[in-house]
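A note from the maintainers: we've had questions about how concatenated examples are separated. There is no special marker in the raw files; a new sequence line simply starts the next protein. For clarity in this README we add a label.
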Amino acid sequence: MTQPELEELARNIIDSNLYMTLGTADGTGKPWASPVYYAPHEYTEFLWVSAPEATHSRNLAARPELGIVIFDSRTPINTGQAVYMSAVAEELTGDDLDRGIEIFSRRSQQHGADAWTSADVLAPARLRLYRATASETFVLDRDDQRIPVRPASGR
């Protein structure tokens, strides 16, 4: 596949899936994987809501670096494709929270959920809004070699 085709593939995977898997680690390096519903923004920012007490949220508070994979688990064997990312995550506050909740709410409503507001993710609410910002994005070629892509370059 050409580079533009790989970048289109990455965009299609990100756009067509609802869940991404977060790969986090606690302060001692103990790993944890968590699927979360996400809202992408420009293929470099990924927003989700979680309880701050969730294992992955606690891990990110201690160690904000994470790995992300987005894939469709329903594809036949040997036909699956995925997008892999290295990222840094944070809980959103202030102006970032207002912008982020708008992005998250818009996608959630497209999938049949109610609108979200900042009150839904500020104390004393149970959930918080998080954002991962990808520093590297990859797809795998037929030999399982990592091919860097920039999905946002095609839009």
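[label: protein 2]
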Amino acid sequence: MAKSFFIASTGQHVGKTTLSLGLLSGLQKRNVKVSYMKPIGQEVEKTESGALVDKDVLLIKEHFQLKGKDIHMSPVLIAPGFTKDFLDEKIETESLVQKILAAYQELGKSGSSLVVEGTGHIGVGSIIGLNNAQVAKKLNLPILLIASGGLGSAFDELMLNKTLCDLYEVPILGVILNRVKFEKKEMITSYMQKALKRWNIPLLGCIPLDSILGIPSIFDLKTLFKESFLSGEECQFKHFKQIRLAAASVSFFKETIEPGQLIITPADREDIILATISKYWELHSIQKKYDFNIGMILTGQLPPRNFVIEELKKAHIPSFHIPLHSDTVLETINSFTAKIQKEDKEKVEEAISIVEQNINFDYLLQLLSK
């Protein structure tokens, strides 16, 4: 049986959950009995029963129909005020360690190999005496280290994080590069393998940058801006190829509007909004089942008029209003990295597919069997 391992990254939003999805799926398809654990969670969600669980645990448990209990898969949650309570000596590191060890042992009773996902970079959690290297050491697990695609900068980040692993004497099982530009994948693979030879650490995969995973759904953005849908809520998990700011003339807009665009425009630009709706009906008249796949974010202090909202609803175009300037909205979106939602089935399947195709599972299993 393959042994368990710990997934960590060189930074935040590098893709640990994406890799966890693909690794669990790929191992299952190779007849490895697997389960999942996130020892320390920060993004908490309440279940139907009222229990608090890390969001990634809910996503992976539901998708793979895992049988472990929530309290074992998500034993420690860092809620607001947790760090202050720790520093005020209301919480002790040893009590957290015991919760994590007990949960790990319970999940291991099923005979499963555990994919254990860390939080942030290797140093995250140091303030409570439980950074990722310390947790991996307590669990006696090797670390699979993920870095964002690149060469020099990626290696520099790997070096920083490896230093902390070395300090706590935690072995690094291998490295995976995520979000590598497709046209540079072959070159980066070759040279990163050469660079990692000095540490005797293998490169187990290079995951190419993926457009679906990189662009948030309109549901992600609704959540980001804490707004309600004006229309098209049933289409909230659509994905767009392009996020577009539309503020020029309507004649130019009509010439350049295409399927797959998320359009940001002021709510008082009714000419652009109605041109979008008109394009939808034009395409719909040609092919009834045609998916125009368009979304709209309407900006500015004044909301759109009721008749505009009604027309958006008739066309089932997902839209919401944000009382900010369009430039501010676009800037906020560009700096936002969306987590994969369990309801977003298309993105979950895309994550699994692209990881499975670009990981050397044979080599990984060989390393895990030693």
